[in-house]
């Protein structure tokens, strides 16, 4: 016998805006009961002396430190551009706005 009643499943289905057939209500009542049982087992295992975690294994930041390095000058970057204007790449207008 499940601890979730058929009426409770029907109520949850209405809240979720799901249309369920009568046999689906019975089937889902059993499934929801199993889910609640599994959550209950996890609650029993969880202990106060174990800190909550977001990952099963400890993770560390693997990114490198930001270090300034030489880069292209504006002139060098624009040297291969088909068109440039005022020190920037010139591209075709796409939004149809007037300049």
UniProtKB/TrEMBL annotation:
Pfam families: GatC. It comes from the Bacteria. GO terms for molecular function: asparaginyl-tRNA synthase (glutamine-hydrolyzing) activity; ATP binding; glutaminyl-tRNA synthase (glutamine-hydrolyzing) activity; transferase activity. Its EC number is 6.3.5.-. GO terms for biological process: glutaminyl-tRNAGln biosynthesis via transamidation; regulation of translational fidelity; translation. It catalyses: L-glutamyl-tRNA(Gln) + L-glutamine + ATP + H2O = L-glutaminyl-tRNA(Gln) + L-glutamate + ADP + phosphate + H(+); L-aspartyl-tRNA(Asn) + L-glutamine + ATP + H2O = L-asparaginyl-tRNA(Asn) + L-glutamate + ADP + phosphate + 2 H(+). InterPro entries: Asp/Glu-ADT_sf_sub_c (IPR036113), GatC (IPR003837). Coiled coil: none annotated. Residues 78-99 are annotated as: Disordered. Keywords: ATP-binding, Ligase, Nucleotide-binding, Protein biosynthesis, Transferase. Allows the formation of correctly charged Asn-tRNA(Asn) or Gln-tRNA(Gln) through the transamidation of misacylated Asp-tRNA(Asn) or Glu-tRNA(Gln) in organisms which lack either or both of asparaginyl-tRNA or glutaminyl-tRNA synthetases. The reaction takes place in the presence of glutamine and ATP through an activated phospho-Asp-tRNA(Asn) or phospho-Glu-tRNA(Gln). This is Aspartyl/glutamyl-tRNA(Asn/Gln) amidotransferase subunit C. The gene is gatC.
């Amino acid at each position: 016998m499940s601890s979730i009643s058929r009426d409770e499943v029907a109520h949850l289905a209405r809240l979720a805006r799901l249309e369920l057939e009568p046999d689906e209500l019975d089937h889902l009542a059993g499934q929801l009961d199993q889910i609640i049982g599994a959550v209950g087992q996890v609650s029993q295992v969880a202990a106060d002396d174990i800190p909550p975690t977001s990952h099963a294994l400890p993770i560390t930041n693997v990114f490198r430190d930001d270090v300034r390095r030489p880069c292209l000058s504006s002139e060098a970057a624009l040297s291969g551009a088909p068109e440039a204007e005022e020190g920037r790449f010139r591209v075709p207008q796409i939004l149809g706005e007037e300049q």
